[in-house]
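Researcher: Hi, I'm a grad student and pretty new to this. My advisor asked me to get structures for two proteins we've been looking at. I'm not sure of the right format, so I'll just paste the first sequence and hope you can take it from there.
Model: That works fine. Here's the first sequence with its structure tokens right after it:
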Amino acid sequence: MIKINNLTKTYFDENNNNYHALNNISLEIEDGDIFGIIGMSGAGKTTLIRCLSHLEQPDSGAIFIGETNIADVNNKKLKSVFKKMGVVFQGYNLLEQENIYDNIAFPLKINNIKEDAIKKRVHELLNLVNLADKEKSYPSKLSGGQKQRVAIARALASSPEILLCDEPTSALDPLTTKSILDLLLKINEKYKTTIVIITHEIRLIKMICDKVAVISAGKIVENGAVEDVFLNPRNDITKMLIKEGL
């Protein structure tokens, strides 16, 4: 389970004016969920996923992955916890100078996994994402959808229990988007992976997510089962997102 308690993150501009990117957020994500977090630009989505992936340190609050608070930078268990988490970054973040095999193998190599085990795992993932014929290709030769598949495979390399996806389909056409969502569903079903998706796309939430949280101005304004939230929206932001997504 992921449990977020009273999470706050404040930024300062060049004039030393502050704003709350996250304002006392609390949220629970059950094991095995496909959980969507949706909001407009500037709502706090990216800051939230950066805190979840430990790329940002919150000002206050707690983020529990199981029993471990990853917001506690002095926690000795953090390294083992982050081995259980994979991140699919917006914009792919592939190593352009490395081929597809080496991109996927990278997390395993830095963890000193034996070469035979790396080869077996990479080939398993290449087959999972339907890129077995692309292992010697380089990112520049791939389509956007193929790059996203490589990014997903790399995030799965260490067999994480949690997969964090930041706008995983924002640059893709509708047909490619569906193929990526089908892949995420397959991963969830095959590995029982908890998937957290940050997005501004209402259709993505409707197509794949079990539960959703709506974020606005750094606060969670609605939270629950997708059907309940979208059929009975209470907040004006939720109503606007639904209208824009029709």
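Researcher: Oh nice, that was easy. Here's the second one.
Model: And its structure:
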Amino acid sequence: MLILAIESSCDETAVALVRDGREVLTDCISSQIALHRIYGGVVPEIASRKHMEAIYALADEALLKANISRSDIDAIAVTYAPGLIGALLVGVNFAKAVALALDKPLIPVHHIRGHIAANYIAYPDLKPPFLCLVVSGGHTMLVDVKDYTHMEILGGTRDDAAGECFDKVARVLDMPYPGGAALDKAAQNGNENAYIMPHTKLSGNPLDMSFSGLKTAAVNLIHNKRQKGEEINVPDLCASFSKAVSEMLIPRTMQALDQTGYRTLAVAGGVAANSRIRGDLMKECGKRGVRLCLPPLSLCGDNAAMIGSQGYYEYLAGNLADQSLNAYATKTMEGERL
């Protein structure tokens, strides 16, 4: 089954052709990083307009690169939630138009489910059940992937996402957008024990996390140092901050593995590209004899191939949409049925 997949949830316009959920024929991405860098972050209105300018030509480019004609397409998959509402609407409306014009099924895909499915592309033999640590700019959660379309959130952040904190601290340090990548690069030359960072402890679900206190502590430290005219060792601060984030993520992930009894851990989302988190996960999984699935960096960020992969399994489960499909800025992925 050949799926034309569309992703436009934030600042990347992406169109891919994916066969049977595992084989990527082409994945074309139009990035807006250079455009948003001058603002220090994504400007939603600009992102939406750029999606409109890029999406049609990008779809044609994907077909041309794969040497596929429109008549060869079996279904259309699209990210419909969550994300920037204006950006999502561009992709959803384009997908609806293509599905109507070609008289093909329309498959709505939750963005986070798509990130999880990136592992199916990177690891063709991977099958549920397994545990997935989702760490992206807007989401941090531990997901019990019981089946391709049956997932349960075991725990997650109660406030800020880990990726959001990386970006915020990087911005306060005047690092270029995207801040998380710049912070990670700086951290590799720093002393992780130079600055003491708080570790939040929560009551209730032991798998839940909180990063707002850590973010605030780091930002306050930077502001206080600057106000007093004191020097900030940027690599040391970045390394100390990265260590603190990892020390909140990794133990809870290992606890979730123990709780589920799974011997396979997948990681998904843009923060999965962070070198400190990747290294700590490899170390801990190696100790426990747990299989660790870490997608290549190209599949950690937003892309359409992951949407095409998950779209295939949503299609098999009968999760289709009609022309009334709408976009949603926020929507849970647990047990959703349209």
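Researcher: Is there anything I should tell my advisor about the second?
Model: You could mention this: The beta strands are 2-7, 12-19, 23-31, 75-81, 106-110, 130-135, 140-145, 151-156, 264-268, 291-293.
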